[in-house]
Amino acid sequence: MDLQLAGTTVLVTGAGQGLGRALGLGFAREGANVAFHYNSSADGAEKAAAEAAELGVTAIAVGGDLRDANAVAGIVERTETGLGPIGVLVNNAAATKAQRFLDSTPEDWAPQIDVTVTGTLQITHAVAKRMAQRKAGSIVNMMGDSGRVGESGLLVTATARSTTIGLTRSLAKELARFGVRANAVSLALVRTDNLDEHSGGAEDERMTKILSQYPLRRLGHPDDIVPMVLLLASPLSSWTTGQVVSVNGGYAMP
User: Fold this and answer.
1) What are the tens digits of pLDDT across the range 41-80?
2) What is the pTM of this model?
3) What are the residue ranges spanned by the domains of the chain?
4) DSSP run (H or E) holding 81
5) CATH topology classification for 9-247
6) DSSP line for 16-74
7) Helices (H), 101-245
8) CA 113 vs CA 25, 167, 170, 225: distances in Å
């Protein structure tokens, strides 16, 4: 199926590793030109951009701290200068930490709120203004199911992630008049390089307990997630906006 993404400029945040990298490469395979954003994973983003270029598209790595307004402006400007007007924004960057709430401190909370909430708002604001002026665009926000159904040991992460739902639905209502759509994809655990960091360690006994919560009896893989994001970003989903779609192996059902 042709998703009609060829030639579209796509900016994926947090794309130097893990799921973000896989998402960027998925768009490249559809013929889109991709900006792989990174903050600290420069090497991974550069390698991902080089791999995408081998597919015959134009791809670049763009660095910057999403918490910094000037850096965000630079990310958007470099992307549009190098690849053209941004047609798709995928908000994937986030900070997570597995920790019991009563053992945490405000110092533990700050990075998660600053990156996942403030950073997402800043990059979305900068890109959405341009999309609105052009009267076209698609925004796909990634989030964890902890923000949708709650999860012990991830309270602060869940709090930060839950804001994605309000952001997505409000964007969809406010920007529809400009031809801009917004949807979210909500995930359970996906096997990426930083799985252990997110899950607090994945030793055999703990993993057995985790898998027992999944009707499909396995964790997700990036390839399980990419098709849904591509479809929501695609013009083929032109009548879909304001939706939160769960791709989670049945971990939690709406």
Assistant:
1) 999 999 999 999 999 999 999 999 999 999 999 999 999 9
2) 0.92
3) 9-247
4) helix 69-83
5) Rossmann fold (3.40.50)
6) SSHHHHHHHHHHHHTT-EEEEEESS-HHHHHHHHHHHHTTTS-EEEEE--TT-HHHHHH
7) 106-113, 120-134, 146-149, 155-175, 195-199, 204-211, 222-233
8) 28, 14, 19, 24
